[in-house]
Amino acid sequence: MNWQDHLPALLLAVPLFGAFLAPLTTLGGKGLRNAWFIFVSSVFTLIAFLLWVRVGATGPAIYVMGGQGWNLALPSGLSIPVRILMEVDAFSAFMVLLSAVAALAGAIFSVNYMERFSGVEKFVALYFLMVTGMFGMEITGDFFNFFVFLEISSVASFGLVAFWRDRGEALEAAFKYMLVSTLGAMMVLVAVAFLYSRYNVVNMAALGKVIEWGMVEKTALVLFLTALAMKCGAVPMHMWMPDAYAEAPAGVTCALIAVSQASLYGLFRVCFTIYGSFMGSPMIPWVIIVLGVLSMFIGVSMAVIQKEVGRLIAYHSVSQVGYMLLGFGVGLLALGDARAMADYGFTALKGGVFHIVNYTMYKGLLFLAAGALYYATGSRNLNEMGGLARQLPKTMVLFMIAAAAIAGLPPFNGFVSKLLIYESSFAVHPILAVFAMVTSVLTLASFVKIFQTAFLGPELKKFKDVREVPGSMLAGMTVLACAILVLSLFPTWSLNHLVEPAAKALVDQASYIGAVFAAAATGGGL
Amino acid sequence: MWDKVYTNFGYWDVYSWLAFFLIAGGMIFFIRSMGRKDYKKGSDQDEIFFGSNPVPEDGEDLKVPASSAYWGYTQALKPFYDGLVGLHTGIATDYVGWYILVTALVALLILV
Predict the structure, then answer these.
(1) What is the pTM of this model?
(2) A383 interfacial to chain B (CB closer than 8 Å)
(3) Mutate to test the interface with B, among A226, A358, A486 (most CBs of B within 10 A)
(4) Residues A179 and A203 in one domain
């Protein structure tokens, strides 16, 4: 047995262990706590990378916890297998890798960013718990476990959003997030119960094999769709997002981006892998497309008029999620029609998958840059800022990279994913591409607004003593900036090695299902 | 690795754009280098022109605040923005209400 077989388990065990040990690290002082924060984050990023390489080389990885053997997927004689089954295909591995990079960048940034506050060991523990839940959502092969991991990541994020508990706004944001998020999680649980009552299984692959298109399945799909769309911030269920993202410490928001992507992952896993070609109605893809267009346009329209830097960027999160929903919606529409899939469906999926990685990187960087502005000036209000290019030149350059990427300016990576989405959605209906392009123009306008009001303009007396942010904050931002530059300068490599395998895995329902049943056969199950 | 990205409709070549930016950057620096270097520092030639008025000492009196950005755009779309901002009440029960409303609408579309 190869030690790399245990990578899926290690991916969950390392941050979980990191979380439980974090409070103890205070005994060794700030230095030990910070070292632990960075060490654990680096280790899980390395594991995520190795897992991505392994899955790319050998195909989907199966791992079972709580069974008789780690590779015993479906043991014989157990009609209701109770265990944690993980299945990592190219799409899961892709999600895990980019989530890990975002979490690592957030952790590095937080070392200096959080040093002014007390209770940072609790912050570190909650951060790792959130990361554990996020990874769990992305690699689980079981719907009930998906719900459990969703709850772990959500509960940890509530605590992190409310971390600055002396701020009423932070508590309010956490409460609102908790309210809608818990309701959404309950709906996911009800959907799982519907499917369990019908098929007596919660295993995703097993469900994908037996599912039919009936009333129970439709009801479950509606509950999954709306709950997970709400968790990733689709309009008009997005209103918790600007509150929570703007109030959470910047390093947390960087990781929260990846958490919301894990919900998006769940949505696409349900639509493509579980229902997939069994989905008997084009209405679901159209619902996703409409949610996407609404999110793009409403999100960016609200962003343009914001005065708080965090809220402005948070509304852009809503807008960017819209692009992904549009891309995947168009891809889902073409599913089952080989010609449409070849003509525009797969291009849309590639655009959607590429936009996931692009969004996670540049949006993470934008939130970190917003955090750097807050750290340096003590204000989140753009009206109070100005002329900061003199004091924060490095932050400004890093912000510019992210802003150009999100606005889709050539030659940055945002342009490539948007181009794929524009062209493929145009094939479905030109109005979809028009909305996407107008959104891009307004995105550029709002980032010009931040750049002009925060960094340009005359020097303000009150900011004369402001200095560039500390090294760890710059390092955290640089990690993401480097990722953006690599994705921008090597788009073909990114598409061939990162995006296409993930998009192919998403549409290859048979491979995902087959991997679990093959593991069952080799492991002695079934 | 260095190939173009084909989209089924066209292609994207990042290196052509990089070449364009390099050439454009070179031209900008060339034009800049042709500027006069013999201006007198500390004299009126070095002063900021502020509509013939004295330049305020604190930049605070000069800067354009974020709330003034895109004033014309927001004024032109005032009815749209009034409605849009009105929907964002910030009330927690409204957040839940929107979620339930969307769930009900999607259920209606899929189940009926």
Answers:
(1) 0.93
(2) yes
(3) A226
(4) yes
